[in-house]
Amino acid sequence: MIRKNCQIFGAMLCFTLAACSSNPYPLLESATLYQPVTTTPENYRYLIGPGDSLSIFVWRNPEVTTTVTVRPDGFITTPLVEDVPVSGKTPTEVARLLEKRLSSFIRDPLVTVMTQDHLGPFKEQVRIIGEAEKPEFLPYVEDMTLLDVMISVDGLTDFADGNRASIVRVIDGEQRQYGVRLDDLIKDGDISANVDILPGDILIIPETFF
Q1: Residue 183 predicted with pLDDT over 70
Q2: Which of the residues 28, 170, 183, 185 has an alpha carbon 20 to 30 A from that of 94?
């Protein structure tokens, strides 16, 4: 009798999952994969992204010294030069690019670029989805670890299955998925469960099955 009831329950569960997963609309193709620049924490360099604020100082030329915000398309416009592509570049690379553009108007320009409101390109941001208290995206910070991420999102919900969590990472243009042990790290204080986070990582925290 028990076995028969289990079979009936299993059939009902399969039917329910199938019904929930059905979608009458045609599915879009998978999102384009973008390879983050940083492959190890040691070679990390901050890259400018949309929404970042840039302070641009041009030595001895206060009329073109300014502060601008990177547009959603990754470009900026400054006095004398328009539509300068900056997203995905380091501040030093942007400074050299502006010097080249400004050289048509200023003799031997010397430019320094400083960043504020650090967001970085989407492909460099760390995303946390699922059963975190505050699912969100985080700008990557040098030497960021899984513990740092969990502190930033206020830990797990009561429904999280932390030891079934995983990190999706793009390596050589291919998405790979790795398991992590959030329950061991947060609830048991097992520091061996702490791992390095890289730009572009997606942390997926599933719901537990009661």
Answers
A1: yes
A2: 170
